[in-house]
Amino acid sequence: MTTINLNSGATAAVLDEVRLVDLPVTGAIPQALNGVLVRNGPNPLRGNFNGNDVLDWWPEDAMLHGISLQGGRATSYTNRWVRTKRWADVHDPEASSMLLDTNPNVNVLFHAGEILALAEGGVPVAITAELETLGATRSHPGLASGMTAHPKVDPQTGELMSFRADWKKPYLRYAVTNAIGMPSVELDIEMSSPSMMHDMAITATRSIFLDLNVGYDFSMLSRGHRMPLRWRDDHKAKLGIIPRHGGDVRWLEITPCFIQHVVNAYDADEATVVLDGVRYPRYFRLQEDGLTFEPPPLGVLWRYVIDLNRGTVIEKQMADICIELPRINEGRTGRHYRFLYAAEQPTNTEIRGVVRYDLESGLIQRYMVPEGDSNSEPVFIARPTSSFEDDGWLLVCVYRHATDTSELVILDSKNIEITPIATVTLPRRIPAGFHGAWLPKTARVPQQSSLGWPAAASP
């Protein structure tokens, strides 16, 4: 696997927690953008990454970053480590036994009046919009034992579909949580072996699991690997489709691959399901020495058309663009959709640029990011007064190498190629990370931390 220096540039950790107010803005922030953009990602508590590949980056300590927008102003930037057992072991050992043993460094979810920082299969942690840690979930009792970092919310019913993949039996557990946070479905799903499942998809009636070619090999730990994941040539890649509220799982074989992130899925008719994702023909394939990985190929947009009557899957590439971190208008989750947005990957060591892809016309727009800089995933916010799928804004965190700082760029989601609507300038960097969420002002539920730690001091 191609390596980079994780301790320099965009990926380098920040060493402190700050709160900055009244950030400088170029352009005009839309008055309708009232809320906070929260970005999650790994930031080692001790300040340095140990190693220089993806599997050294992924498991590091969870840090949240929040940029608050209000009334056309960028009112504040805040960053906080999530207060977990890992955090206390470094900063407050006496509190370690009282905190959750989890590392929610992947994603952020707002559901049933609660904001959750999500881990890769671990226990979610409730937080406030100000990034203070509340502790164990209070509104989602069915998720308290752990869950995927990529659950899916049905925008019409408010239901939350999730899973937990494990290296020990049961290898897969599926759950549906209703709109107020109570569990309505909990099922163990039979699998022959554990797979590394990072994401899932839903339609209006079904949920889709990805049993693909990356799995566990615990012998890798004795060879110095931090995470025991590798490509399996002998594994049959399959898609699993289950009725949303339970029933038999249909497993349909596909060409070997790995899909880290889905884009969306929908029911084309009663017996046909369409699934779009970012597909890799291989990933984490070890070289013959068993110590190093082959350089990974780049991910491309791929479509699977699943015929449940015939038990067949038609696979096809949708575009030549190399992308990751895809996002859509989440009001179209599980339904037919037309537009997707994603971070572009010009090489396998860069995430640089944003693309807008029109699935109907095939037209591609690009927001270009200069060589040496990099960016996060684009987060789509729909214009509140519009019913058009692509009418809104993209929020993108961009790292500027020359100044070692970051900007929040606000793009017109209908035309990302024009000059940004607004740019918020930070005097420091937001390190490269994973996923984020826009929490509108209504998501600022009146919760306060009961853990007793003082807020980090402002600079």
Can you describe this structure?
With about 450 residues, the chain is mainly β. It has one domain: Neuraminidase, CATH 2.120.10. The chain contains two helices and 32 strands. The strands form seven sheets. The protein has a seven-stranded antiparallel beta sheet with strand order 20-21-22-23-24-25-26, with no helix packed on it. Strands 2, 27, 28, 29, 30 and 31 form a six-stranded antiparallel beta sheet that branches. β11 and β12 form a beta hairpin. The two termini are about 40 Å apart. The C terminus is likely disordered.
Helices, strands, pairings?
Layout: E1 19-23, E2 25-27, E3 35-42, H1 54-57, E4 62-70, E5 73-81, H2 85-91, E6 107-111, E7 114-118, E8 125-127, E9 133-136, E10 152-153, E11 160-165, E12 172-177, E13 183-189, E14 201-202, E15 206-211, E16 214-216, E17 229-231, E18 238-243, E19 250-253, E20 258-269, E21 272-280, E22 300-307, E23 312-327, E24 339-344, E25 354-358, E26 364-367, E27 374-375, E28 379-382, E29 392-400, E30 405-412, E31 422-425, E32 436-440
Antiparallel strand pairs: 1-5, 2-31, 3-4, 3-32, 4-5, 6-7, 7-8, 8-9, 10-11, 11-12, 12-13, 14-15, 15-18, 16-17, 18-19, 20-21, 21-22, 22-23, 23-24, 24-25, 25-26, 27-29, 28-29, 29-30, 30-31
Task: Give descriptors for this structure.
459 residues, mainly beta, Neuraminidase, seven-stranded antiparallel β-sheet, six-stranded antiparallel β-sheet
- How would a crystallographer describe the biggest sheet? 7 strands, antiparallel
Structural class: mainly beta
| Cα Rg | 21 Å
Number of helices: 2
CATH class: Mainly Beta
Task: Using the 3D structure, state the CATH architecture.
Answer: 6 Propeller
Q: Flag low-confidence runs.
A: 446-459
How widely separated are the two ends?
39 Å
Helix content: under 10%
CATH-defined superfamily: TolB, C-terminal domain
Mean pLDDT: 94
* Strand segment count: 32
Total of domains: 1
> What is the third-level CATH name, the topology?
Neuraminidase
Shape category: globular
Beta-strand percent range = 35-45%
